Automatic annotation (TrEMBL):
Primary gene name: LOC100786515
Family annotation (InterPro entries): Bulb-type_lectin_dom, Bulb-type_lectin_dom_sf, EGF, Kinase-like_dom_sf, Pan_app, Prot_kinase_dom, S_locus_glycoprot_dom, Ser-Thr/Tyr_kinase_cat_dom
Reactions accelerated catalytically: L-threonyl-[protein] + ATP = O-phospho-L-threonyl-[protein] + ADP + H(+); L-seryl-[protein] + ATP = O-phospho-L-seryl-[protein] + ADP + H(+)
UniProt family annotation: Belongs to the protein kinase superfamily. Ser/Thr protein kinase family.
Entry coiled-coil feature ranges: none
Classification via Pfam families: B_lectin, PAN_2, PK_Tyr_Ser-Thr, S_locus_glycop
PANTHER family given in the database record: NON-SPECIFIC SERINE_THREONINE PROTEIN KINASE, RECEPTOR-LIKE SERINE/THREONINE-PROTEIN KINASE SD1-8
Gene Ontology BP, a term: signal transduction
Source superkingdom: Eukaryota
Lineage: Eukaryota, Viridiplantae, Streptophyta, Embryophyta, Tracheophyta
Signal peptide: 1-23
Membrane topology category: Single-pass type I membrane protein
An annotated Gene Ontology molecular function: ATP binding
Stated name of the protein: Receptor-like serine/threonine-protein kinase
Length: 816
């Protein structure tokens, strides 16, 4: 009897083993997995099985990350052809073809039989790279795989995958139709083989963006590689194949590049590590307007100046429609000013532009071995040649690219672009020399003129030099440092700043903060700026300050106020920022009449913009910046009412792995400070998340957290929002003027995100990448709990809180 029991027990164990672990790692001929069972990769990173996406009830065979929540599917087999119920199986047939059969054993999907070798002893296996392969039992050589899912990408570009062309295969990425339907959607990314092969993004047949061709180091459209080698790209270009791939040297890090069905088809780059099991957003959608393909039309260069985008004709070209001259979107581009006279090489020459994204190469000519001189000669020879450049920038440059048609989709980078030489008539060359672009001409002129003038002014110079030596030498060093780092930043003379601000006149004062007052300045040429004169008490050393400036200058994002220069002289340290005439967010949302100017879609745009800016501050992998004083008066609005975070510069920087820190001096503004910071001076990125949550709820409600009080319940704004939420009346939080033109689900989602951000415990608050995903509806939202500080002055007595010297604290550019 006992024996029988034992037998039964062993059988039971065996059965449950078979059921749960689903055989081993691979599928042999005639074996299959049913719906509900999965195949797991060796190290357990990926899993293959049936799933239903979003709200769909259809069943699909997919590959997903095993330990990642929410379910992150990276590949779908039967994306066009769902199974109607859970009766499907995945099976390896005798010929080594993977098939999905439905309840009546009809094949609804099969893997292609692309291998010329007849499949001998085939097995199917999911690899830890996320690739399902059919291979010979004993042969693990990638080249001999009979079939692999990496050859048929869906919406996700995984490390090791090759996007591009190989005989018989054109591997492209394509988005899902929507979150509930993995069928092919409208966005795709692929390599275009015309001319010099380039990486493109499409919406339908229309190009949305151009990653461009390979310059030996990177794609021309994305010249900066991430600072910490989190991934390395490679590009292979020969007769047999042309593809882009990337690798993650650190095996515990996974980068996921997905082309989401929402957004504008620019793709999102997500990162997760096995250790943190947390998805982080590296890049979400387009980073600025210049990324839109050919936004400036032909022969025109797109330039991002802070938030605003401008188009500039190449020298020698004029806007095709002159009435568009003042319009930043020169969609129609530029045409030559004069007809080119091409008869002799004396009548035209070349002008070098630096730091550019090379124009579209789909009809350009390439020679891989020519050097730049030979390249110039061959361009000169042919009258229709418009420009030339090195194809490969490694080792000082090699190869020759020639353009014969209009030059499309160029942009200026602040870091990492390439040199290109445009053909211009000689008359333009002279003209340009004085405009400061023709470097060589200018140098020559400089030498001749210089030698004459030198004699005359030697004495004066010597006196000047003696007087200003310290300053000049210093400035040279700093300029050199900036140039070495590839930073385009002006260093201003103290006198110029003093004059521009009328000697720091009280009438020009925009605000006063913990780090010092902010003034408005206006240069002789009319350009306006905001200058922060740092207080002398800061105690920061000169080197420290310079390093800080270099770091701040590198922070460029359309949702951050742009630093345009600095001034260091004696004890003076000043930061010069772009001026924002529209002032700050609080001037709109809390203002009696102005509030009507920001309807719900604009507010939602502002909410998302702040989140993106903050995400950039928190997760730019080189610097991790905690703002520490986020509030509506630190959010400035540009002419389009797009938000820009200001005053991030001197916030605390967290280095490398550091995620939190302590401070003795609590600076910040009451109403926005999270409990742990107000009480213990403990701050982390999650403190900013709290402040963000407050701002979000203020934007939705049009009420100041600090001033609001719920008459019946003695609650502040956070408490009030929480009460409405629990009573399922969240929409009532919305300000009256906003009740039109809104999507209720969007509002509710925002409020939920806001409440999650103001949770009492930092660890319960989402990080900014989750916030961004949640706002976009791409991540499930957990349910919020009671927020921190939900009753006015209940959690911490006010005496414990030392807000910085006054309410304006570190306010920039806010006229009061
Ligand atoms: C699936 O549907 C078929 C026919 O519609 C039915 O015969 C079968 O029982 C269903 N299987 C399951 C698991 O529901
Ligand atoms: C199985 O697929 C075949 C062909 O697509 C279809 O005709 C049949 O109805 C399907 N059966 C079930 C149970 O889904
Ligand atoms: C489908 O195939 C399986 C195994 O190959 C077999 O056991 C089952 O009877 C078949 N079902 C039908 C409806 O043909
Ligand atoms: C591979 O199979 C899919 C259907 O699963 C089909 O659309 C595609 O054309 C096939 N490709 C080749 C090269 O046979
Ligand atoms: C796969 O290719 C092999 C070799 O070309 C051929 O013998 C076999 O019939 C093919 N299988 C299918 C399902 O097309
Ligand atoms: C363009 O702007 C300049 C300066 O603001 C102005 O003088 C000129 O008239 C404008 N041109 C057109 C065509 O609007
Ligand atoms: C490239 O240029 C080199 C040097 O001018 C020349 O020898 C070679 O034939 C060219 N190759 C092609 C493919 O035109
Ligand atoms: C100039 O280049 C174009 C494009 O490659 C070509 O069609 C044309 O024949 C060339 N003209 C001369 C004079 O070589």
């Amino acid at each position: 009897m006992v024996h029988i029991f034992r037998m039964l027990f062993i059988w039971f164990l065996l059965l449950s083993y078979l059921r749960n672990s689903t055989s081993s790692d691979n599928l042999a001929v005639s074996q299959y997995i049913r719906d509900g069972e999965t195949l797991v990769s060796e190290e357990g990173t990926f899993e293959v099985g049936f799933f239903s996406p979003g709200a769909s009830t259809g069943r699909y065979l997919g590959i997903w990350y095993r330990n990642l929540s929410p379910l992150t599917v990276v590949w779908v087999a039967n994306r066009e052809n769902a199974l109607q119920n859970k009766s499907g199986v995945l099976k390896l047939d005798e010929k080594g073809v993977l098939v999905i059969l439905n309840g009546t054993n009809n094949t609804i999907w099969w893997s292609n039989n692309t291998s010329s070798k007849a499949a001998k002893n085939p097995i199917a296996q999911i690899l830890d790279s996320g690739n399902i392969v059919v291979r010979n039992e004993r042969d693990i050589n990638e080249d001999n795989f009979f079939w692999q899912s990496f050859d048929y990408p869906c919406d996700t570009f995984l490390p090791g995958m090759k996007i591009g062309w190989k005989t018989g295969l054109d591997r492209t990425l394509s988005s899902w139709k929507n979150e509930d339907d993995p069928a092919k959607g409208e966005y795709s990314m692929k390599l275009d083989l015309r001319g010099y092969p380039q990486f493109f993004g499409y919406k339908g047949d229309v190009i949305t963006f151009r990653g461009g061709s390979w310059n030996g180091q990177a794609l021309v459209g994305y010249p900066i590689r991430p600072p910490t080698q989190q991934y390395v790209y490679d590009f292979v270009f020969n007769e047999k194949e042309v593809y882009v791939e990337y690798k993650t040297p650190d095996r515990s890090i996974f980068i996921i590049i997905t082309l989401t069905p929402s957004g504008s088809g620019f793709g999102n780059v997500l990162l997760w590590t096995k250790q943190t099991r947390n998805i982080e957003v590296l890049r979400l959608g387009e980073s600025d307007q210049c990324e839109n393909y050919a936004i400036c039309g032909a022969n025109s260069i797109c330039n991002m100046d802070g938030n605003s985008q401008t188009c500039d004709c190449i020298k020698g070209y004029v806007p095709k429609f002159p009435e568009q001259r003042n319009v930043s979107y020169l969609h129609n581009g530029c045409v030559p000013r004069n007809k080119f006279d091409c008869k002799s090489s004396n009548t035209n020459g070349f002008l070098r532009y630096t730091d550019l994204k090379l124009p579209d190469t789909s009809s350009s000519w390439l020679n891989k071995t020519m050097n730049l001189d030979e390249c110039q000669k061959s361009c000169l020879k042919n009258c229709s040649c418009k420009a030339y450049a090195n194809a490969d920038i490694r080792n000082g440059g090699s190869g020759c690219l020639l353009w014969f048609d209009d030059l499309i989709d160029m942009r200026k980078f602040s870091l990492g672009g390439q040199d290109i030489y445009f053909r211009v008539p000689a008359s333009e060359l002279d003209h340009v020399a004085f405009n400061g672009h023709g470097k060589n001409m200018k140098k020559m002129l400089g030498i001749t003129v210089g030698t004459i003038i030198l004699g005359l002014t030697a004495c004066a110079c010597i006196i000047m030099i003696l007087k200003m030596q310290g300053r000049i030498i210093y400035r040279k060093h700093f300029k050199h440092k900036l140039r070495k780092e590839g930073i385009d930043l002006s260093t201003f003379d103290f006198l110029i700043i003093a004059r521009a601000t009328e000697n720091f006149a009280e009438s020009n004062k925009l605000g006063e903060g913990g780090f010092g007052p902010v003034y408005k300045g206006r240069l002789k040429n009319g350009q306006e700026f905001a200058v922060k004169r740092l207080s002398k008490k800061s105690g920061q050393g000169l080197e420290e300050f310079k390093n800080e400036v270099v770091l701040i200058a590198k922070l460029q994002h359309r949702n951050l106020v742009k630093l345009i220069g600095c001034c260091i002289e004696g004890n003076e340290r000043m930061l010069i920022y772009e001026y924002m005439p529209n002032k700050s967010l609080d001037n709109f949302i809390f203002h009696e009449t102005q509030r009507n100017l920001v309807d719900w879609p604009k507010r939602f745009n502002i909410i998302c913009g702040i989140a993106r800016g903050l995400l950039y501050l928190h997760q730019d992998s080189r610097l991790r910046i905690v703002h520490r004083d986020l509030k509506t008066s630190n959010i400035l609005l540009d002419a389009n009412l797009d938000p820009k975070i200001s005053d991030f510069g001197l916030a605390r920087t967290l280095w490398g792995d550091q995620v939190e820190a302590n401070t003795n001096r609590v600076a910040g503004t009451y109403g926005y400070m999270p409990p742990e910071y107000a009480a213990r001076g403990h701050f982390s990125m999650k403190s900013d998340v709290f402040s963000y949550g407050v701002i979000l709820l203020e934007i939705v409600s049009g009420q100041r957290n600090r001033e609001f009080s719920d008459p019946k319940h003695n609650l502040n704004l956070l408490g009030y929002a929480w009460r409405l939420w629990t009573e399922e009346r969240a929409l009532e939080l919305l300000e009256g003027v906003l009740r039109e033109r809104l999507t209720p689900s969007e509002v509710i989602r925002c409020i939920q995100v806001g409440l999650l951000c103001v949770q009492q415990r930092p660890e319960d608050r989402p990080d900014m990448s989750s916030v961004v995903l949640m706002l976009n509806g791409e991540k499930l939202l957990p349910n919020p709990n009671v927020p921190g500080f939900y009753t006015e002055r209940a959690v911490t007595p006010e005496s414990d809180i030392k807000p910085s010297s006054n309410q304006l604290s570190i306010t920039l550019l806010e006229a009061r």
